[in-house]
């Protein structure tokens, strides 16, 4: 079975590390980007089943990055991920495919990635 | 004695600083001693225009007999002299028996020792003040020169009586002024209307020496529906006549009295009632009624009636002012409340921004700590004790995350998802949910729902959260058990039809010093409370253009009332 590729975008190094390891445990191949621009670079070089995108980032934030990603490929699956719960109801209008609130319990993240990637 | 000397003494006394009564008695004694008039008795006019003996000289014996009766002007010799203002002189031979009055029965024989009887009017040019009676056992006739002296002396006595009258009436005026000024003071002090009326009743009762004074409101006023304010006690026998008189005064819009048909109580004193309507510009506010014991005079004097209507005017203006004040105070309170709400909003906004940032900053490290700990726990073989430590770390991380969620819940401005909702059913649903727990057996639930309660437009999920919060608080306040009362009704609140839901507990109430803080975020009295429950509830209700109110029933419990507008125009436009 072809391994699904996931791109995790977060400005916090340790969050990136945690998500990477947790998702790798689930059998995904995980690439990392620490900001929006880096993420766009990665997306030009490779194809990802899902992008897990932090919202609050310095420079280009998650919502802007999401817009850019969809400009390049409007079918690119993206999961928004934030420490804020209050945007949860708005994610649909940002045409993302899911929204999770960051938690030490990564169960929800894994579920969402599985659903959106279809793998 | 030389008449000039006598007149000199009389005039000296009459212009002295002696008290009125002493002056009169001194002059009567001079008449007795220096003019050898053994009887010198002075009649004065009472308020009801009847003559009675008031003063006598030292040697008078008749005074005792004469003072037992009062005579009308024109009646007997004394009355005739008062009426005609002309002196009359008699000898023992031609004096009318009993001085022309049938009722002086005891006088028979008592006048035998006297040879002359003189009756002199005490008057000035315009008015008669009394009559002087002189009897002498030595002179049979009064010579003309003595008559002149007597007429001068009686003029002096008349002058003294006139001064006395003036003094009495000015004393009365002063006491009236004192009463009115005291009333003025009461009216200008910013007291509640009901204190005001009670004070007026007691001040006037004292001033009028009334058996009772009662003020009855005929109008339904703010917090003073048809109340009665009484100083003194209303005799049970008086209640009926009092009520009749009050409605008569209200109907006629003028003073009425029951004085002419004075009421007789079996053993008690005779009482008279006088009732005046309290008129305002365009309405009758009520009545004030005086009850007095009847002594000599039958009807209330005109002066007093004037004072009563002055008092009624005072009450009228006092009440109007007081109502205006109350209205003003209500408006001010409303304004204050509105301002408080604005401040609350501001506080929430800035707090919201701050908390969201803090929560975000904390959330990331927390996720990292918790996430990696869990990974460790999975990958490393640990003994039981270490596992326990790991569990503690993971547990505490989840707790912190839960707190953050709660804070962010409070902070976020979730758009309302609006739909119609009947609060009676919503409350039932919540009760079903909560009260199925065994711990609820200690609480008795009372539902006072208004049937056919209109539905309101609201975010049902959020409103449900509000009532769960408030009901749980009430439940938690009654650890030893108690009564939970849920009441729904339609009321007017701030000019809008609202559904009011009140939740009353019997948990002893809230410390009054804390009342102001209970809606503040993070304020709690519970050991494990976050202090956000009520703050969130309040915010939700505010978003619905509603209002949460707390009332403390001292020693009993607290009442939380939630007002939600029925026709929520702002909401329906947004939704």
Fold and architecture overview:
The complex is a heterodimer of chains A (119) and B (575). Chain A has 119 residues and is α/β, with parallel strands linked by helices. Chain A has one domain (5-107): Response regulator (Rossmann fold, 3-Layer(aba) Sandwich), CATH 3.40.50. In chain A, 38% of the residues lie in helices and 20% in strands. Chain A has a five-stranded parallel β-sheet, with helices on both faces. In chain A, β3, α3 (62-72) and β4 form a beta-alpha-beta unit. Chain B is of the alpha+beta class. Chain B has three domains: 3-169, Beta-Lactamase (2-Layer Sandwich); 173-327, 2-Layer Sandwich (Beta-Lactamase); 415-574, Heat Shock Protein 90, CATH 3.30.565.10. Chain B has helices at residues 3-14, 20-34, 62-66, 76-84, 144-188, 193-208, 236-252, 302-379, 384-411, 423-435, 460-477, 533-543, 569-574, and strands spanning 39-45, 50-56, 71-72, 88-91, 116-123, 128-136, 212-217, 220-221, 224-225, 228-232, 256-257, 271-279, 284-293, 419-421, 443-448, 456-458, 482-493, 496-504, 547-553, 557-565. In chain B, the strands form five sheets. Chain B has a six-stranded antiparallel β-sheet. In chain B, β17 (482-493) and β18 form a beta hairpin. In chain B, α1 (3-14) runs antiparallel to α2 (20-34), α5 runs parallel beside α8 and α10 packs across α11 (460-477). Chain B is rod-shaped, with a radius of gyration of 44 Å. The interface between A and B is medium-sized, with 18 and 27 residues.
